[in-house]
Amino acid sequence: MKFITLISLAFATSSLNASAQSFDFDLTKEQPVYSEATGYGYDILAKPAKKSNSPFYFSVKVPDGNYKVTLTLGDKKRASQTVVRAECRRLFYENVETKKGKLQNVEFVVNKRSTQIDEKNRVNIKDREKDYLHWDNKLTLEFTGSAPAVRSIKIERDTTATTVFLCGNSTVVDQATEPWASWGQMFPRWFNTNIAICNLAESGLTARTFERAHRLDYILSKLKKGDYVICEFGHNDEKEHSDGDGPWYHFAHELKIFTDKVRKAGGTILFCTPTARRSFDEFGKIKNTHGEFPTVTKTVGQREKVPVIDLTTMTTTFFEALGVEGSKKALVHYPAGTYRPQKLEDNTHFNPYGAYEVSKMVVMGLKQLNIPFVKELRSDWKDYNPASPDAVDQWKWYDSTMVDATKPDGN
């Protein structure tokens, strides 16, 4: 889906200056379809018709970095309800309602990146990532909801926000397509404009393959003093069986490497234990499928004085609270004919509801550890207990137009 933005008067020419630091787009005026020549426009989908309730995308070509986005939402002639996402379905606002004739401003900071680290080095991405919106040369905003209405977009380069970098696998990554989702892409929804989230996670990665793909190098090249790095590994590390592999030697060694490099660069590192798999015993209790990997994460954290969020325990509580059948509604379990002719049954990968709930667990973990950047939570944040999850039937997600039922790498 391709969407467009109107550039400020300084850029009223036919092309967009990619080095500019600030852009203003008036969507009440005619806008082009995105092209490399203009550097901005409606993207991915056809240009939306006037008074349409259809979703649309809007892209602008910008250099890598953090950008503060200010939106004016609403319509003078109709009520509206708008959901705001960016890049690969990264959630920023889930439900902004305006009455007819009323307008509302919202703002957030979004991280835009490419694979480029420096003149010689790049992040090694998988073939499946080559079409991901978060690796291209533009910032893409997605507007959906029952009646999306966007009046204007302002994009400004931001150099002051604290950046929180995420490292991990398919339970953390910004999943590009429905019906898959991970907590990392829901995480930005909870923070104000003093925080930017940069998610380098990818499905199937271990701590070792994350590092070897130069994803940690990318983080270190961008990290500034005061930034944070959150790591969640374990799901795929369990399946490494070369000499020396295992939780107590290789995995612990990798966590130490991450810790030392992040600290040397001036950042603060945090660990998360891996999310539980939906694997129940005959008594309705979640079985431990991770062996000693959660314990090792905690042990290295204690030894190196790295704060640890126990997602294994919190997601175990969450699944057990939902029950054997109810917990399927947090994962990619769908009947035949929903997203593909065959049914989908995945007990590792979350759907948007499950990912949203896990993002709340991460925030609660940060609060319990008194991590300083939690003071930047938005005013509508409410504390969360995984033993009392949000009612799934009262939670609404508007599917993106990007759908692919192919299972992500890893398990």
In short:
The chain has 411 residues and is α+β, with helices and mostly antiparallel strands.
Task: Describe the protein in words.
The protein starts with a strand and ends in a 43-residue tail after the last helix. By secondary structure, the chain is an alpha+beta fold. It is 20% helix and 26% strand. The protein is globular, with a radius of gyration of 21 Å. It has helices at residues 183-186, 207-212, 215-222, 247-264, 293-304, 311-326, 352-368; strands spanning 2-3, 22-26, 40-43, 56-61, 65-74, 80-86, 90-98, 103-112, 138-147, 150-158, 162-168, 195-199, 228-232, 268-272, 308-309, 331-334, 344-350.
Enumerate the strands of the largest sheet in spatial order, edge to edge or round the barrel.
1-3-4-9-6-7
Number of domain units:
2
**Structural class of the secondary structure composition?**
alpha+beta
By CATH's scheme, which homologous superfamily of the largest domain applies?
Answer: SGNH hydrolase
Features:
Jelly Rolls, 2 domains, 7 helices, 5-stranded parallel beta sheet, alpha+beta, Rossmann fold, single chain, 411 residues
Helices, strands, pairings?
Elements: E1 2-3, E2 22-26, E3 40-43, E4 56-61, E5 65-74, E6 80-86, E7 90-98, E8 103-112, E9 138-147, E10 150-158, E11 162-168, H1 183-186, E12 195-199, H2 207-212, H3 215-222, E13 228-232, H4 247-264, E14 268-272, H5 293-304, E15 308-309, H6 311-326, E16 331-334, E17 344-350, H7 352-368
Helix pairs in contact: 4-5
